[in-house]
Amino acid sequence: MTTLTNEQMLKNVITIIKKMDITDEADFDTEMNKVINKAKNGKTTVRKTKVSKEDKEPKALTLYQQFVKDKMPEVKEKFDSKDRMKAIAELWQEQKKSSGSE
């Protein structure tokens, strides 16, 4: 293990703190202990904390995704599973041409 100077350790701590995302005060002490240990070891990477699925806001569907969602029920009746997405892609191309948004 290489020996780091105090200046190098402090730079490592600052680098890690800039990358951190602490949202809860209770986590601060734990996270700071981890930061100090990482700085001692010369590591400056920080893993982002994962946001649970319940906390995430759903993203808006793209135009294509909404088109697929709307067209899938009628395409399911007419085509077998292998040809459904091909049929939707063709319908999408037709719609793009008719609306002039290529």
Descriptors:
102 residues; mainly alpha; 4 helices
Task: Explain this structure.
The protein is mostly helical and 102 residues long. It is built from 4 helices and no strands. Helix 1 (6-19) packs antiparallel against helix 2 and helix 3 crosses helix 4 (84-99). The longest helix has 16 residues, at 25-40. It is elongated, with a radius of gyration of 26 Å. The relative contact order is 0.09.
User: What is the helix/strand order?
Assistant: HHHH
- What would the principal axes of the Cα set say about the shape? elongated
Main sheet record: none
Number of strands: 0
Output the radius of gyration.
26 Å
Helix content, binned percent: 55-70%
Overall pLDDT score: 80
Strand content: under 5%
Q: Unreliable runs, pLDDT <50, ≥5 residues?
A: none
Give a brief description.
With 102 residues, the chain is an all-alpha fold. The protein has 4 helices and no strands.
Structural topology:
Elements: H1 6-19, H2 25-40, H3 63-78, H4 84-99
